[in-house]
Amino acid sequence: MISPSVLLNQAAAYRMAAKEAARLARSVSDKQEKARFLRQGRRFEQRASLLEKEAVNRSRPVSIGLDAGDHSRTACTPDLDHVPKPKG
Q1: 85 lies in a domain?
Q2: Cys staple from 55: which of 7, 42, 44, 84, with CB 3.0 to 4.6 Å?
Q3: Residue 77 within a domain
């Protein structure tokens, strides 16, 4: 399985290719060539978006220690019992 960081690196490469396609589209005068570069740039952007979504789907949720059902205080939980409650 490909890791999310690898997918994000691939997405970044596709985004760079899309920017290069847009730059090339601006540099040519032929309308057909311009349209071809712009189409390819859109394809690169779409692929980058799909890769980013896949990276998010493969990411593991961050555990904050509450999923085990133990909601008692731990060393990481601040003790706020001594803090005065706001008036009102």
Answers
A1: no
A2: 7
A3: no
Number of domains in the chain: 1
List the structure tokens of 30: 């032929």
**pTM for the full model?**
0.65
Cα-Cα end-to-end distance for the chain = 55
Residue 40 lies in a domain: yes
Distance CA 88, CA 78 (A): 24
Full residue range of the structural domain in which residue 36 is found: 4-58
Three-state secondary structure readout of 19-60: HHHHHHHHHCCCHHHHHHHHHHHHHHHHHHHHHHHHHHHHCC
Give the tens place of pLDDT for each residue, 36-78.
Answer: 999 999 999 999 999 999 999 888 666 666 555 555 555 555 5
